[in-house]
Amino acid sequence: MPVNRVYRNVGERDLVSYDYIDVAEGTGIIVFYGYNSVSGATTTYGLTTESIYSNDLQTNGTSTTAGFSLCLDLDFDLSKFNSPRNMLGTAIATLGIGGTGAASQAGEVYGKVKLRHWDGTTETEIASAQTETFAVATGDGSAEDYCNIPLVIDELVHFKKGEILRASVEVWGKKTDSGNFPVTLLHDPKNRSTGTPTHTSSLLQLNIPFKLDL
Questions:
Q1: Mapping DSSP to helix (H, G, I), strand (E, B) and coil, where does residue 123 land?
Q2: How many angstroms separate the Cα of 181 from the Cα of each of 63, 82, 95?
Q3: In sequence order, which residues have a C-beta less than 8 Å from that of residue 5 and are 6 or more positions away?
Q4: What is the reported pTM?
Q5: CA distances from 5 to 2, 8, 12, 40, 211 (A)
Q6: Span 16-211: which CATH code?
Q7: Which DSSP symbol is given to 49?
Q8: Helix or strand run (H / E) with residue 146
Q9: Cα dihedral 175, 142, 145, 194 sign
Q10: 88-128: pLDDT as tens digits
């Protein structure tokens, strides 16, 4: 018995290109990279699928406290969706965070990634996760940790046309010596290895699952 074919009007939806398919979850995965742009005195952070150069390889902050404090809080925004999208499944964030242990400088650092739905007025958190904590000792110089964390989206999230996916990335640090403790977040889609130190990877990467329209 022949199988009936269902033909869709191509005007009903735009074509979406997925980097790979997760068959078990029934999702198409799109890989986004974090970057920043500078116009005059204004710095903005964004997400892209393209391997472009970030204006800055990294963004730096400083912990001045003996307890953990928020050193960096950056919003990486995707361009507005040009058609509705449904998000569901397990996202993966990979990011490089670091710190500097020079004379009288030492500390501990970790990162947080929060996926958010942004409609231009209200920000709604979808999922969040935290990296491991790692220590930088006095005299270590600049050190980094490249982390992989899952963000579970266990309820379907609907994005209307014109709404935005936001990835808010935080870096938390505390000093463990008398001096302040510098911290770093890497974000270069070109994955440049220059800088201090020479980076294992400078990618800020998000693998985001979208529900397949089957």
A1: strand
A2: 5, 42, 20
A3: none
A4: 0.89
A5: 9, 10, 17, 55, 21
A6: 2.60.120
A7: S
A8: strand 141-159
A9: positive
A10: 999 999 999 988 888 889 999 999 999 999 998 999 999 99
